[in-house]
Structure formats: structure tokens, C-alpha cells
Amino acid sequence: MNTEIIVSVVSFFGTMFGTIGGILASAKLTNYRLQQLEKKVDKHNNFAERIPVIEEKIKSQETRIENIERNEVI
After folding, report:
1. Alpha carbons 17 and 9: distance in angstroms, whole number
2. The model's pTM
3. Cα-Cα-Cα-Cα dihedral of 66, 67, 73, 74, to 10°?
């Protein structure tokens, strides 16, 4: 077989495997970053659910403090 043909076949397979490897590595990185983003969104959603509860507790504490202050003034 001619050496030019062998070199071209080897370079073709090298290029093909390199391209496929790059695509797979890129896909893995994209999936990893999406998972990290989903974790951040889950944390944010949990925080958003807790805010109304915290606000209600603050209102309750403010009412208690006002009652205590009124009793001290008298």
C-alpha cells in the first residue's frame, strides 16, 4: 500500500477520534454545569418558599414587642 494512503487513513481516524472526544468532553462539561445550575435554582426556590414564613414570624415578633413596650410605659 502506498505510504500516502496509509498516512491519510491514519490522519482521518485521528481527526475523527479527536473530534468525537472533543464533542463528548464538551457534552460532559455542559451536563455538569447544568446540574450545578439546577442545584442553585433549587436553593433559590427553597429560599423563596421560606420568605413568607419568615415575614409572618417577624410580624408576630413585632406585635409581641409592641405589647411589651406598652406594658412597660404604663
Report:
1. 12
2. 0.56
3. 160
State pLDDT tens for residues 6-33.
999 999 999 999 999 999 999 999 999 9
Query: What string of DSSP letters covers 27-70?
Result: HHHHHHHHHHHHHHHHHHHHHHHHHHHHHHHHHHHHHHHHHHHH
Distance, CA of 12 to CA of 20 (rounded, Å): 12
Task: Dig out the grid coordinates for 7 from the structure.
Answer: 498516512
* Structure-derived torsion over alpha carbons of residues 37, 39, 40, 41, reported in degrees to the nearest 10: 90
What letter represents residue 48's amino acid? A
Alpha carbon distance 43, 37 (integer Å): 10
Owner of C-alpha cell 410605659? 73
Cell numbers describing residue 19: 473530534
